[in-house]
């Protein structure tokens, strides 16, 4: 056994403990002259010096205990060994030294699993618990200890198992060497013809296995005879089979990995081809839009030029008619017949002039309409182009996310198919790829949801805006009460009673067990009174020259309500005033969007803006959790 680690631990922890034991500050002997471990909380029973020494040496030799515990028990064992030798009696004291096992004949047969035979045990171990004997030989790391019985009676012999591996064989050889060094070997036992006072132990071999008696019967029942060569060959065969199996499994994994790589390459090529086709389609669409804009501009210029020419032609015709009127006036001095003819011609020309003026006005109005139409068309084209750009950017983002998701899924399949021998340290990379994949899928879902909201918003009409308000009210009503209270925009039911007011009133009049039930009944009663259209506790008064509806203080039901207290009275009158000032003639509660911070109705525009802020905040918080 390597004692270097034990020495360092003893120097670190055990020196102080040993000094305390030697000085008597830590006591191991009770007033009755018995001994007790000062370090183990479960070792409260008094025991002999022998038992305490065995306990300390067993804990010291254990491999699965803390270094300080082992060092403390080593100091205790050192302290106990310093006691007078005669006080220890005839002990079974294992020598905790590293003994090199001699080379064995590889054809020599041993009992397997490795077993040790212990004969001529002291009387204090006969018929006692096997665990006590196991703890005594703890330095040799036995796996099991069995007392040997003959016809139901203990024989004073025991079988100690050391396991099936080579470390068990080394422990068994150390066990045998321990007794050989003390002169208590199997050969000496046979020479003394099974006599003597000292216990004797050795490794079970073929002669023990085939011997008559309880020991041979136990060995044949619980073990087999094997040579060292047999065990080495069995382990070699098992190793060869395992290597062959693992090689076959690795080959299958490599084949599967190659198939996955081929599929991944095909998918990547297909996606690349789709991206090229998409780029071509976008380029073609952009060129078509550009042509349409150019054609629209050309048509606009053509219409404007034609209107300008038409105005010039009308102006020329008007100038010509004015010139002819002047000529007619100059010829007015001619004959009466000519004069009458001139008057008729003049009237005709005046009528024609009037018609031309009306035509000019109509043409000017048409020109203005054309200009307005052109401006409207320009605005619609800009809106359409802006919408197309926005949708194109969203489409690019969506397709990029889809490509990244496909790439990550292929990469994840390849990494998950990596053989176990080559996947050292890749578990963390696989988790990172999965996290990134989940984040991309979440972004894609958010993008699709946002695009859908944009499409729905663009197709809304004024009637759909009202429906959106109702949908928003329903959505806010489904929020948990704690979240709804914290939001700036919430839902308020106009004309609905506050049940807390009646609960507080009932708590003052009824016991705690009946207050809640009575408050529900009372609140329901007055809510029905409010909803009753026949109850109209209002009167019309003139305030600043305007008619106003105010509550009648002498109303019988309101006087009855005052008996329940001011809080309940304020709750009912507030609900009545809210319904009275609302649009229409409703007498039942209805929901409206409400600004919780300012205590007023919230317009739809404000509610929509607040809903978008909530959505963005929830989206940002969702991304942070996935990264975490």
UniProtKB/TrEMBL annotation:
InterPro entries: FDM1-5/IDN2, FDM1-5/IDN2_XH, XS_domain, XS_domain_sf, Znf-XS_domain. Residues 492-619 form the Factor of DNA methylation 1-5/IDN2 domain. GO terms for biological process: gene silencing by siRNA-directed DNA methylation. It holds the Pfam family XS. Residues 107-211 form the XS domain. It comes from the Eukaryota. Keywords: Coiled coil, RNA-mediated gene silencing. Residues 37-77 form the Zinc finger-XS domain. Residues 257-418 form a coiled coil. Gene3D superfamilies: XS domain (3.30.70.2890). This is Factor of DNA methylation 1-5/IDN2 domain-containing protein. It comes from Eragrostis curvula (weeping love grass). The lineage of its organism: Eukaryota, Viridiplantae, Streptophyta, Embryophyta, Tracheophyta.
């Amino acid at each position: 056994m390597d004692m270097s680690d034990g020495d360092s631990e003893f120097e670190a922890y055990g020196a102080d403990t040993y000094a305390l034991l030697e000085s008597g500050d830590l006591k191991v002997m009770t007033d009755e002259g018995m001994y007790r471990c000062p370090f183990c909380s479960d070792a409260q029973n008094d025991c002999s010096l022998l038992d305490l020494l065995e306990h300390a040496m067993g804990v010291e030799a254990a491999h699965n205990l803390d270094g300080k515990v082992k060092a403390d028990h080593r100091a205790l064992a050192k302290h106990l060994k310093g006691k007078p030798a005669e006080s220890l009696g005839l002990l079974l004291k294992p020598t905790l030294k590293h003994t090199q096992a001699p080379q064995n004949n590889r054809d020599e047969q041993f009992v397997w699993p490795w077993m040790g035979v212990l004969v001529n045990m002291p009387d204090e171990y006969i018929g006692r618990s096997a665990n006590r004997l196991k703890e005594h030989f703890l330095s040799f790391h036995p796996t099991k200890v069995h007392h040997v019985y003959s016809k139901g009676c203990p024989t004073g012999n025991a079988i100690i198992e050391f396991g099936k591996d080579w470390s068990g064989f080394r422990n068994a050889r150390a066990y045998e060497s321990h007794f050989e060094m003390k002169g208590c070997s199997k050969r000496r036992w046979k020479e003394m013809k099974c006599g003597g006072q000292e216990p004797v132990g050795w490794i079970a071999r073929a002669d023990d296995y085939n011997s008559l008696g309880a020991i041979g019967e136990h060995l044949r029942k619980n073990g087999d005879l094997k040579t060292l060569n047999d065990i080495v060959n069995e382990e070699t065969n098992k190793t060869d089979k395992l290597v062959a199996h693992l090689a076959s499994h690795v080959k299958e994994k490599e084949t599967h990995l190659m198939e996955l790589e081929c599929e991944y390459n095909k998918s990547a090529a297909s996606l690349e081809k789709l991206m090229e086709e998409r780029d071509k389609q976008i380029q073609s669409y952009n060129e078509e839009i550009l042509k349409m804009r150019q054609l629209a501009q050309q048509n606009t210029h053509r219409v404007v030029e034609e209107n300008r020419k038409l105005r010039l032609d009308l102006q020329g015709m008007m100038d010509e008619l004015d010139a002819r009127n002047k000529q007619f006036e100059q010829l007015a001095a001619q004959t009466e017949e000519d004069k009458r003819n001139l008057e008729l011609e003049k009237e005709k020309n005046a009528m024609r002039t009037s018609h031309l003026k009306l035509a000019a006005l109509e043409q000017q109005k048409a020109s203005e309409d054309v200009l307005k139409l052109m401006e409207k068309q320009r605005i619609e084209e800009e809106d359409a182009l802006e919408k197309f750009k926005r949708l194109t950017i969203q489409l690019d983002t969506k397709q990029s996310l889809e490509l990244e998701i496909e790439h990550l899924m292929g990469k994840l399949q390849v990494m998950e198919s990596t053989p176990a021998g080559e996947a050292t340290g890749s578990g963390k990379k696989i988790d990172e790829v999965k996290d990134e994949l989940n984040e991309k899928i979440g972004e894609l879902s958010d993008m699709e949801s946002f695009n859908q909201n944009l499409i729905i918003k663009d197709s809304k009409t004024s009637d759909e805006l009202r429906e959106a308000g109702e949908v928003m009210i329903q959505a806010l009503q489904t929020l948990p009460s704690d979240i709804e209270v914290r939001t700036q925009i919430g839902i308020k039911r106009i004309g609905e009673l506050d049940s807390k007011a009646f609960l507080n009133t009932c708590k003052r009049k009824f016991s705690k067990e009946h207050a809640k039930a009575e408050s529900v009944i009372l609140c329901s009663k007055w809510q029905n009174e409010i909803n009753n259209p026949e109850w109209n506790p209002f009167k019309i008064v003139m305030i600043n020259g305007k008619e106003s509806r105010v509550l009648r203080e002498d109303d019988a039901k309101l006087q009855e309500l005052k008996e329940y207290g001011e809080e309940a009275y304020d709750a009912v009158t507030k609900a009545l005033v809210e319904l009275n000032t609302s649009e229409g003639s409703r007498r039942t509660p209805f929901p409206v969007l409400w600004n919780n911070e300012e205590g007023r109705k919230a317009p739809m525009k404000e509610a929509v803006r607040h809903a978008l802020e909530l959505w963005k905040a929830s989206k940002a918080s969702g991304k942070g959790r996935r990264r975490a």
